[in-house]
Amino acid sequence: MARRFFPAGICGLLLAAIIAASISTADSQLLVASSSFTADLYKPFFRKRATEKETLFVGRVLVLVLSLIAFVIANSKGSGAQAIMDMVENAWGAFGASFGPTILLSLFWKRFNYQGAVAGVISGFVIDLGWLLTGMTASTGIFEIVPGFFGSLVVAIIVAKLTSAPNEKAVAIFEQGTSKNAD
Questions:
Q1: What is the pLDDT of residue 63?
Q2: pLDDT > 70? residue 79
Q3: 71: which DSSP letter?
């Protein structure tokens, strides 16, 4: 799309930004996986007296192994890579439908409360999952985040209105954070 709608210079900048963001995300995920493995599994369960140099080496080997696995998956022509992309797409859809309305309401509505947030998160996830599992995405062409988001929004507002208002301390924090003088 960038090549079609933008001049060559702007297109190059946009594509470079996309690649930079992708590389940044990939290396962060690799480092998190490596450090989590060495700190949470390797040292406590396999080598309790592992030195810092040893855990660093194990972490580096794990980064290499995970990179090779990711490379194989990315280069696969079959359904393996597509299945992973589908799972990621569905996970982000459920995440957005569940937490999107709750985050927006908590930022912009002083009356929003805990009960509304919980109801919104649960209903968004259930609607998103139900839309996906019943095949509505394929039959309607509407991605499951759309009905999940709006369903979550409606449920969160209704439950927040039907339950008690947030306490004065929560309202004071909201007003402090949304005041014109907030830093």
A1: 93
A2: no
A3: H
Count CB neighbours of 117 within 10 A: 19
Sole residue written with tokens 């954070």: 177
Helices (H) and strands (E) in the chain, counts: 8, 0
pLDDT of residue 1: 77
Q: What is the pLDDT of residues 129-169, one digit of tens each?
A: 999 999 998 899 999 999 999 999 999 999 999 999 988 89
Query: Which one, of 119, 95, 117, lies nearest residue 107 by Cα?
Result: 117
Q: Is the pTM of this model over 0.85?
A: no
* Residue type at 139 in one-letter notation: S
pLDDT for position 133: 92
Q: Name the residue among 54, 55, 53, 27 with its Cα closest to residue 39.
A: 55
Under 8 Å between Cβ of 125 and 94: yes
How many C-beta atoms surround the C-beta of residue 6 within 10 A?
Answer: 14
% of the chain exceeding 90 in pLDDT? 49
Query: What is the SS3 assignment for 147?
Result: helix
> Residue 36 CB: number of other CB atoms within 10 A?
13
Q: Residues 153, 119: contact at Cβ < 8 Å?
A: no
Q: Could you write out the three-class secondary structure of 80-136?
A: HHHHHHHHHHHHHHHHHHHHHHHHHHHHHCCCCCHHHHHHHHHHHHHHHHHHHHCCH
* Exposed / middle / buried, residue 25 (Cβ in 10 Å: 0-12, 13-18, 19+): exposed
